[in-house]
Design a protein that fits this description.
The chain is mostly helical and 132 residues long. It has a domain of 81 residues. Helix 1 packs across helix 5, helix 2 crosses helix 3 and helix 2 packs across helix 4.
Length: 132
Amino acid sequence: MGSGLDVGRPPRDRLYVVDKLSDRAVAAGASVDAGRWRRVLEQVLESFAGRFGRIEPRRSAAGFVAGLLSQAEVKACWQIAEQAGHQRPDAMQRLLYRSVWDADGARDDLRELIVGRLGHADGVLVADETET
């Protein structure tokens, strides 16, 4: 209130600000090369694979991440499990509720990968989950 900041818009004091209302180039890519997508996804998954002590939760995590990034409308354990080729959601539920893994370390590993690929000294990440 009264701060003079427009909290509904990204800051304009950065060199690389993308505003989807005015920068239509963001939506220019209508398709994704499937081979390249798989390679990038493998890099992402490999970045935090060591945070799991066993192969089973590592595989479940890979399927879970792929399911979250899929175009499925509903992203609950059951639908994510189906996306990963499972008959039941047990493996995904076990990953979330019982598996032992270093979530903070996985976050840090993923951040390091993203900053390494996309980082810029003056960069700011703005996530916009609204749909047009």
